[in-house]
Design a protein that fits this description.
InterPro entries: ADH-like_C, ADH-like_N, ADH_Zn_CS, ER, GroES-like_sf, MycoS_dep_FDH, NAD(P)-bd_dom_sf. Keywords: Metal-binding, Oxidoreductase, Zinc. It is a single chain. The protein is α/β, with parallel strands linked by helices and about 350 residues long. The chain contains eleven helices and 18 strands.
Length: about 350
């Protein structure tokens, strides 16, 4: 048993640093010494009850770390391996996996044993990871080995591939299937939207249009690959996207906000036979009315993107390689480096929209 410091949410609205117990790994599990962990909005959803009320929660999930121990039967990683943690540890047995669509695995693995508070109360780990902790216990399949040689200060950037950055890049490359020479519009330039812009650039889009209401975010979007920006407070987003695409609309429009208004903009701003991807997470109970005749007459496709339709074992190594080659600026997503005790204040900073990611370094 390992006693470590961690950030937990004991009840709705609560964020505190405390000592927790982390078991040694059993069959199929790995104990990971955490190096970095990004502060993601999903963690705040856990704190505010947006995911459920199964408190207490062990927060954190966007991480890089070092495998410290492995359990019986683990073959994909060894002690000492540097890894990125992921929440899609494919089962290999569900109907998606059996169809060869491992990126949609419906039964992803988590550690069997539970981490606990010092009094024995079981913790629910955020996304099955719980890595706002000096050490965490995960299913071995949640570890993707980093083969690349990296400098110590680069793990903060690479660890962000564990969630939000990958969700955005994957929305463009995997779900949206962006092709060389296409036009892409991204509505909402927070962390995921900014990553979608980087993904569109990586995929070879020659016109990348960033849409937001915040000039600071739009300026940041340009640095990540946007060729044009639209402040939708000042100009109608649909009209602007059409003007920038010769009146036709974009080949691919990504809604990184996830509310009815932005989805409607995405739907109306695409070209004939264009694609719409929803990667922004809607609030529970959110609804939308779509005219069926326009849906039929416009053609193309509308897709939602879960985790950027990412398969970590396939995609993480490729993204790291692009990072090393200078094609993907992961460092730009690390706005500030903080201590474990700063996580609560980082949630407040995140709400201002002035940061892409605050990253805890251990």
């Amino acid at each position: 048993m390992h006693k470590v410091r961690a950030v937990v949410s004991l009840k709705k609205g609560d964020v505190s640093v405390t000592t927790i117990n982390v078991p040694s790994p059993g069959p199929g599990e790995a104990l990971v010494k955490v190096l970095t962990c990004g502060v993601c909005q999903t963690d705040e959803h856990y704190v505010e009850g947006g995911v459920g009320d199964n408190y207490p929660y062990l927060l954190g999930h966007e991480s890089a770390g070092i495998v410290e121990e492995i359990g019986e039967g683990v073959t994909n990683v060894e002690v000492g391996d540097k890894v990125i943690l992921n929440w899609r540890a494919v089962c290999g047995e569900c109907r998606a996996c059996k169809k060869g669509q491992l990126q949609y695995c419906f039964n992803t693995h988590n550690a069997t044993q539970k981490m606990t508070l010092e009094d024995g109360t079981e913790l629910e780990a955020a996304l099955g990871i719980g890595s706002f902790a000096e050490k965490t216990l995960v299913a071995a399949g949640q570890c993707t080995k980093i083969e690349a040689e990296l400098e110590d200060d680069q793990y903060a950037a690479v660890g962000l591939l564990g969630c939000g950055v990958t969700a955005g890049i994957g929305a463009a490359l995997n779900t949206g299937e962006v092709k060389r020479g296409e036009s892409v519009a991204v509505i909402g330039c927070g962390g995921v939207g900014s990553a979608a812009i980087a993904g569109a650039k990586l995929g070879g889009a020659t016109k990348v249009i960033a849409v937001d209401v915040d000039e600071q975010k739009l300026e940041r979007a340009r640095s990540l690959g946007a060729t044009h920006t639209v402040n939708s407070k000042k100009k109608d987003a649909v009209e602007a996207i059409r003007e920038l695409t010769d009146g036709f609309g974009a080949d691919l429009v990504i809604d990184a906000v996830g509310v009815a208004d932005t989805f409607k903009q995405a739907f109306e701003a695409r070209d004939l036979a264009g694609r719409v991807v929803l990667v922004g997470v809607p609030a529970p109970g959110a609804t939308l009315e779509v005219p069926l005749d326009e849906l039929f007459g416009h053609g193309g496709s509308i897709k939602s993107s879960w985790y950027g339709d990412t398969l970590p074992t396939r995609d993480f190594p490729m993204f790291v390689q692009h990072y090393q080659l200078g094609n993907l600026d992961l460092d730009a997503f690390v706005t500030e480096r903080i201590a474990l005790e700063d996580v609560e204040s980082a949630f407040e900073t995140m709400k201002t929209g002035k940061v892409l990611r605050s990253v805890v370094e251990f």
